[in-house]
Structure prediction request, 436 residues.
Amino acid sequence: MKVLDIEKKIGIKTFLTPFRGIGGKLRLYPEDFIVQEISNFPAKSDSGIFLITTITSKNWETNLLIRKLSDSLHISKKRISFAGTKDKRAKTTQLMSFYDVTVENLLNIKIKDVSIENIYRSDKSIKLGNLSGNKFDVIVRAINDDVDYEHVEKITNFINDNDGFPNFFGIQRFGVIRPITHIVGKFIVKDDFEKAVMTYIANPKKDEDEDTYKLRENLQKTYDFAEALKSYPHKLNFEKAILNKLVVNPNDFVGALQELPRNLLTMFVYAYQSYLFNRILSQRIKNNVPLNKAVIGDIILPIRKGSIDENGIKVTKSNVKKVNLQITKGKAFVSGVLFGSDSIFSEGVMGEIEHKIIDSEKLDSRDFIIPDIPYISSAGQRRPLLASVKDLEFKLINDDFNKNKKALNLKFELIKGSYATSLLREFIKADDIRNY
Prediction:
């Protein structure tokens, strides 16, 4: 499927950079996408009940890795914590914590392409979001033959001159092959749990393999949960967990959803908020309103003690010059709304954009209070429109796996919450989703 078609479905409708893309393919090999978490290490305590460890994995999506670790240790998944979800097609290093597990048992785990190092004890666990950012070392292979140093330099300089790149939520937030997490989230918010479940476990997509497509198609038509449970392959383990619940009670769609890991279930609502944010950000770019400069009516987020303060400041005629001075110094960001139950809208041009897109979805802030599953309710917040990038470096290299092609090696650092693919898309501008 064409990238632009998928990106439009997840709310991304434009680029920041005006230059043609370099083409190429991402993630041909897991080692082409190396991610090292910039972790916040809990303090050591010899008597601590938590084991803290650095885990490096190749070709493991975080939720599936947690499941494998819990099975290997014969413990509940709830006793394993991590700071950030990582992609499957990559080599990643991240911090995890294990509650009430012995060092010996942890070291005895043998999982393919997973290494466990730097174990110590602490009184505190790792919590979701408990990281500063991520360092990336990425190789884009098989780039266009006419790409030269000056071409890549133009793109790099444009991003640096604009203080970063659009802070879109990347495709992986929604699912690369089946970009449906935001649709599931929309049905949850709209209080239609049956459609939410069926969108996730059925709802065939043509980019899936033919067998899986047919199985999902059959379930969509028949609602035969018992047959689907028998026929769905093991790789659809989250779907099978839902189906197992529906076989017992075919009408308990709320209970079926709650068979999913808590962080995955929460992700559905977040993905819908992300889709709305992407649309808002796209429209600001299309309206030629700058991302690295505030206009009257904007809400800016100041940087305090190295972190983004979610208590926004409204931009007025009297403070706009002072605000923009702080933005120029990297001490504040212009923000867009991540809509939820307690959201505050911008005013002026940005307010018009936000209201128009939220109204187009026929949403009320109270929709994000979800009584049936209270812990996935979301108050909402503000998110920077621009993602800053640190230490962005590049070099053109020979493609080791295709001697007739060049490759681009990019190294950079992003703060937490920013997507490397949202930066890389400004370079690649791929036609085919398989190239991401």
Observations:
- The chain is about 35% helix and 20% strand.
